[in-house]
Design goal:
The protein is an alpha+beta fold and 356 residues long. It has 4 helices and 13 strands. The strands form 2 sheets. Strands 1-2-13-4-9-10-11 form a 7-stranded antiparallel beta sheet. A 6-stranded antiparallel beta sheet has the order 3-12-5-6-7-8, with no helix packed on it.
Length: 356
């Protein structure tokens, strides 16, 4: 027994050291990420301020050029008007002269009329002035906002995926959002048999006697539920066989071709479970991108799914006596989501559990 205690002490001391090393590495990584983030944010703000100052300078320069030209033209026209008025007064005085000889003599002494200043023909349509500049700056702002929103989503997802220490999450907290699901037979593949009140799906060799329907999946053996999800929900799926897929998708996911497979498009998110000889592999898939985790057997045959539609959070868990975190996706859902099941190998089954 002393030897067992000694071995456990040694093992746990190693675990303490390993945990400390991971905490130190995590803290260094977080501190550097904050430092780099603040530095790059400052660089971005400086760049925007620099560009803004540049636009201001260009506007003021062009304003000065335009106004200076207009003021010079205006002054020239005023001088010309003054000369014309003087000539008018002189002519009025001359018209009172009765002596023809004196009239001709004085007329010859009059100041010649100034040459008329040519004034440019202004655009008769609506004048734009600097409104087009404002429109261009507005377009640049909108583009930047769109880009920032997209990149912020990616940054949030990357932060949410940090998983150095898989934290246990009490299943009881999820069960308050538990929901019962039933598959919509009108979406079920012809190679998928539904049973237990449409809660269970089985991959079959023989085609099922389903009628033709526009919502039916015509490729892989999969189906969606009837009810769309837009709040917080939790559900569990029990599986058996060589492999299944536990998914959520928009209602408008394709029904035929490779792009209709759960996780192989931008309309669905899927956890693919593969039962291999010595291990269970979990593949998280979205838009043909995938992340992988494998665990040595024995493993649980139940998967939990938590959805917070408003916050854009989708999490997958392995469920047994405990709940083990697998994957989390942080995104922005633009439509209600529909839970789905895929059974891609003959004899494989997937069933929505009654967690209510």
């Amino acid at each position: 027994r002393q030897q067992e205690i000694h071995q456990r002490i040694q093992s746990q001391e190693k675990d303490v050291i390993a945990l400390q090393q991971k905490m130190d590495a995590l803290n260094r990584s977080a501190d550097k990420a904050v430092e780099d983030s603040e530095k790059m944010s400052t660089e971005l703000i400086t760049l925007i301020q620099k560009r803004s100052s540049g636009v201001t300078r260009k506007i003021k320069l062009q304003q000065g050029i335009e106004v200076s030209w207009a003021e010079k033209l205006q002054e020239k026209l005023k001088l010309e008007i003054a000369d014309l008025r003087k000539n008018k007064i002189d002519l009025e005085k001359l018209s009172a002269e009765d002596d023809p000889t004196q009239f001709l003599h004085k007329y010859a002494l009059l100041t010649p009329l100034p040459k008329s200043t040519t004034v440019p023909i202004f655009n008769t349509g609506p004048l734009q002035y600097f409104e087009e500049v404002t429109a261009s700056v507005s377009a640049a702002r909108d583009t930047l906002q769109t880009s920032c929103t997209k990149e912020w989503t990616n940054i949030s997802r990357c932060v949410a995926e940090v998983n150095v220490f898989p934290l246990p999450e009490p299943r009881a907290e999820f069960l308050q959002y538990a929901k019962c699901f039933k598959l919509d037979q009108n979406t079920a593949s012809m190679k998928m048999s539904l049973s237990e009140g449409n809660r269970k799906a089985t991959c079959t060799k023989d085609q099922q006697p389903y009628g033709a329907h526009a919502d039916r999946f015509m490729g892989r053996s999969q189906a969606l539920c009837k009810t769309g999800l837009s709040g917080r929900h939790y559900w569990e799926v029990e599986w058996s066989g060589l492999g299944v897929s536990v998914a959520v998708a928009y209602r408008d996911i394709a029904r035929t071709g490779a792009c209709s497979v759960f996780g192989e498009n931008d309309r669905s998110w899927a956890l693919e479970v593969l039962n291999q000889e010595h291990s269970i592999t979990y593949n998280f898939k979205h838009n043909r991108n995938r992340k992988k985790k494998s665990f040595a057997k024995p493993c649980a045959s139940k998967v939990g799914v938590f959805l917070d539609h408003k916050k854009g959070i989708l999490s997958f868990y392995e469920v047994s006596d405990t709940i083990t975190f697998l994957f989390r996706e942080q995104t922005r859902f633009s439509q209600p989501l529909y839970a789905g099941l895929g059974v891609y190998y003959y004899g494989s089954t997937a069933k929505f559990c009654d967690t209510m």
